[in-house]
Amino acid sequence: MVDFSNDTIWTYVVKAVLIIVFLLTSVLVAIWFERKVVARMQVRPGPNVHGPFGLLQSLADAMKLLLKEDITVRAADKFVYLLAPMISVFCSLLVFAVIPLGPQVTIPFTDISTPAQLTDFPVAVLYILACASLGVYGIVLGGWASGSTYPLLGAVRSTAQVISYELAMGLSLVSVFIMVGSMSTSEIVAHQQDYWLMLPLLPAFVIYVISMIGETNRLPFDLPEAEGELVSGYMTEYSSMKFAWFFLAEYINMINVSAIATTLFLGGWRAPWPLSAVGDGMLNEGWWPILWFLAKMWGFMFLFVWIRGTLLRLRYDQFMKFGWKVLIPFALGWIVCVAVVRGVREFQGWDLQAVGIAIFVVAAVTLLVVQLIPERTPEPTAPPEPEAFDAFAGGYPVPPLPGQRLPASPRAGRPARAGIGAAPAPDEPTAHAGKEAHDE
Fold first, then answer.
1. Do 329 and 278 fall into the same domain?
2. pLDDT digit string (tens) for 174-220?
3. Collapsed DSSP state (helix, strand, coil) of residue 327
4. Mean predicted lDDT score pLDDT of the chain
5. Is residue 78 within 8 Å of 72, Cβ to Cβ?
6. What angle do CA 403, 407, 412 make, to 5 degrees?
């Protein structure tokens, strides 16, 4: 792992403050970036009034939320209602503590040399998964404490969603641990000096990308806050800065998962292949690696926006079926393949990567065939004959319910009268005859 022995308490404080400033600034840029990209996809200008290229629009939105009236719902559990957005923001800020932004760097105008990373430890990736899992408590408690129906439904949906896609995300990272032999983020980046892990672990990379979109509640997986069904989901009863905290946590989580994908699959801060060979690796030293890391991370941010502007929201049953019946079995099969290949290479000295790929292809085809096989449906049976319904049984005429039928009318099959004054049929009693029968 990276050596932090020369760092002092003030070094840690300065780096922590810089990370928080970086995340807050990145959120403002991400909001502007998303609006601009979606606007171009929809052939419209997007924000272009406040500041050059509309860059100050995000700042104007932040000030608007800051100055709006802060409303607290009367039926809410006030303590939990205020605590929930703070939990979401706090957990989202913790993830970047173990993300390596670059190698050892020297602070300008000083002789201080420190890693471009706050800290690292042998189980850093487990720490990231723990922070991501705890962040959902903010959503769940916010929906429950609001004392309203729509936020509660959004919170319940979010719980099921995170359980489903957190499993798929964790399983997609197991193959990285098997390949590297460590959960330290700095060691995973160091292992990718010759090749990015995305190349040998492409299926795990695809599973992670899909899972990270579901984890951050983004389209097409934004079911906890589906405005067409739940108004605004778990955020419906929040306003002003409490709403802004949830909004902030969502965008910071997007940055977090993009940084994790960059670190674990795209070589982290290392320059891409043509540039890594320039000047005998000169571009992988100093402050240059931070630029490569940001470029890769913002590539994933563009992917988020691209998917949002392209795909439609799934139905909830489709979403859960995809997570439990496709992603999780697929990830488990890939882990078995990687473990078998890694074990044989370790103990036998054989290079069975091609065999592992073949096993994975067979497993993928089998899974696809199983998904395409139509489900057995029972043979249709004739519906039971509905019983005759007496509309006058209770002494008052009642219309029949679905599935009930009225008895046949005694006038069925008789010819219609020619007009209002037409004579009645020979066998049909007149109104006068009916009256006489009643008098008798």
1. no
2. 999 988 888 999 999 988 888 888 888 888 999 999 988 888 878 78
3. helix
4. 80
5. yes
6. 125
Residue 48 confidence class, pLDDT cut points 50, 70, 90: confident
CA–CA separation, 223 and 256 (whole Å): 20
Q: Is 327 found in the same domain as 293?
A: no
3-state secondary structure 179-210: HHCCCCHHHHHHHCCCCCCCCCCHHHHHHHHH
Question: pLDDT tens-digit profile of 396-430?
Answer: 777 777 767 776 766 766 665 554 444 555 554 44
Residues belonging to the chain = 440
Domain that holds residue 365: 316-374
Asked if residues 16 and 118 have their Cβ atoms less than 8 Å apart, the reply is yes
**Model pTM?**
0.77
Domain boundary residue among 314, 339, 364?
314
Q: Are residues 203 and 327 in the same domain?
A: no
CB of 233 closer than 8 Å to CB of 212: no
Place of tokens 């009256």: 435
The domain total for the chain is 2
107 inside domain: yes
| Pairing, β 113-116 against β 102-106 | antiparallel
Instruction: Give the span between the Cα atoms of 406 and 352, in whole angstroms.
Output: 75
Q: Cα dist. 184→55, 130, 329 in Å?
A: 37, 15, 26
Looking at mean pLDDT, say which of 206-215, 217-226, 310-319 comes out highest. Answer: 206-215
In single-letter form, the type of residue at position 19 comes to I
